[in-house]
Structure formats: C-alpha cells, structure tokens
Amino acid sequence: IDGRDSSTVRELAIEIGVLENTHGSALFTRGETQALVTTTLGSKRDAQLIEKLETNDRIEDHFMLHYNFPPYCVGETGRVMGVKRREVGHGRLARRGITACLPSIEDFPYSIRVVSEITESNGSSSMASVCGSSLALMDAGVPIKAPVAGIAMGLVKDDDRFTVLTDILGDEDHLGDMDFKVAGTSRGINALQMDIKIDGITEDIMSIALTQAKEARLNIIGQMNQVISEPNEASKNAPKTKVIKIPTDKIR
C-alpha cells in the first residue's frame, strides 16, 4: 500500500537510554509504529507470585513484560482502564519471544519488569515491543543471550496465486488473508503466532513466509546492533546484588 515491494522492511529509528532515571530504556520506531520500552530491575524477592488452582503451591515469576496500547496511539480518545484482552495476548507473545534469551536467575539474580508503551501504531506493535524490549534489556545491563527482533508477515491470496508481504501495515492486516508474527534471534525462532482469514495455507506459503521473515529479522537485528551490540553496565539507579558464599567448615 505504501509503495514498498513485498519484502522490504519499513524505515527504522532506534534509540536507547531515552529516559534518564530508568534502569534501561529504548525507543523503537518502524514506519508509523513506535514503542517506548523501559526495563526495571528488582531483587529476587520482587518476583511476581502466582498461585496454582489445583494445589497450594506458588510460582515465582522473575520476568514480567507488560504491553500497553492506549487509545491515543491510533488517534482515538477513550478511557484508559484495566488491561484488555488484546494487551494481554500481545504481551504474552512478546514475553515468549524474549524469555528464551534471558539469563537464568542463578546467573543474573534479579527480577525484571519490562513495560512497552505503544505511542503510535500502524501494524505489528507486538513485534515492535519485542525489538524494543531486547534493546531496553541490553541498555539495563541484562546479559541476554542474543538480540531479539520480531516481524509480522502478511498474505494476499487469489486462488492459486499469492504474495507474501513483509512488515505489514494495519490496512494490509485488515485487507489481507494472514497476520503471521515471527520473533527470534539471528540463529532461530523464539515465538510464532498466526491469524488467518482463509481455510489454511500451503507448505510453500509457510516456507516463503519464514524465509522472508528471517531476512527481515536479520536486517532489523543488524540495525539494532549498530546502536547496541553488547549489554551496557548496570545503571547507577539499579539495585546491586552481591552473593557471598561461606565455606561450610566455617559455619558453627
């Protein structure tokens, strides 16, 4: 719709450290989609406690990713109330894309909260959140295993003819036949989500979509690496944790 060919990613603008007093922050812009992402570090005791329904056991979740999609990001007015189903789903998808590359709690003894605030949206804000989260985590000094990026693929199909679209706009999502989100690193895929309006897709369509998604992902990661390729030192505002192991023979 905007004059690109079917495999071109929209222009990117990437910044880190945009908010001075946060532990880590990033502003990721792809075309008319923008995410302002912050990372906050806390102690292990700041983990989210999740109670199981079947038993009295509780799970400690040391990584939280919250995705906010306020009405103004699409030029609308409205109340900003509780989290909606869309925000929960997009947040869970972005979380799954990032979780695979996080360090273990033993290697990095902090609880981590990432908040992605969508400031404008025209297609694939969840994948912008993945890219922004990776940047904000590295800005906060979190030793992630590899940078993570995400892209949304689309499809226009007419009988046996089809075209797979890279980095779809909101209108291309609305008018097209598929919204296929792919998040991962340069080495592989971390998370997938597909919404389709047709009965199904062929193996050829899936193969082409994954191939174009990989090319787009590598392109985005390359531009992210030009801004930050290794985790920064931890922010001066972040809490510090030091682990001291006492030899057992010294304990009385």
Describe the structure.
The chain is α+β, with helices and mostly antiparallel strands and 252 residues long. The protein has a single domain, classed as 2-Layer Sandwich (Ribosomal Protein S5, domain 2). Helix content is 24%, strand content 31%. The protein is built from four helices and eleven strands, in the order E-E-E-E-E-E-H-E-H-E-E-H-E-E-H. The protein has helices at residues 85-99, 125-139, 170-175, 203-227, and strands spanning 12-16, 24-30, 33-42, 48-51, 58-61, 63-68, 111-120, 149-158, 161-166, 178-184, 189-196. A five-stranded mixed beta sheet has the order 1-2-3-7-6. Strands 9-8-10-11 form a four-stranded antiparallel beta sheet, with helices on both faces. It has a two-stranded antiparallel sheet with strand order 4-5. Helix 1 crosses helix 2 (125-139). The longest helix is centred in the last third of the chain and has 25 residues, at 203-227. One of its GO terms (cellular component) is cytosol. Residues 9-143, 147-216 form the Exoribonuclease phosphorolytic domain.
Summarize the structure.
The chain has 252 residues and is α+β, with helices and mostly antiparallel strands. It has helices spanning 85-99, 125-139, 170-175, 203-227, and strands spanning 12-16, 24-30, 33-42, 48-51, 58-61, 63-68, 111-120, 149-158, 161-166, 178-184, 189-196. The protein is 24% helix and 31% strand.
